[in-house]
Design a protein that fits this description.
Number of strands: 2
Number of helices: 2
Structural class: alpha+beta
Radius of gyration: 14 Å
Strand content: 5-15%
Order of helices and strands: HEEH
Distance between the termini: 18 Å
Number of domains: 1
Length: 78
């Protein structure tokens, strides 16, 4: 998919899932490197190249478990 198609697809998906507290967004250096399902959000003051040990990690909860099972059922999880 080209960047315009990815943008349209993520917008359409987010219209449906955002009210559920979940959002799809881009990650990576170029669009569309990867799409990620965001289930939690927190301000982060990091920087490029920072040690991964300093990046805060979220604790997986029920919402992440549910999102993973739905993605697996639809053959999207890899």
């Amino acid at each position: 998919m080209d960047p315009v198609e990815v943008s349209c697809a993520t917008f359409s998906i987010n219209v449906v899932i955002k009210p559920l507290g979940v959002e799809v967004g881009y990650v990576g250096e170029e669009v569309p490197d990867y799409l990620m399902v965001f289930t939690q959000r927190e301000p982060f003051k990091g920087y490029m190249g920072m040690p991964s040990s300093e990046i805060p990690q979220f604790v997986e909860g029920d919402q992440e478990t549910l999102a993973r099972s739905i993605l697996i059922q639809h053959g999207v999880w890899f």
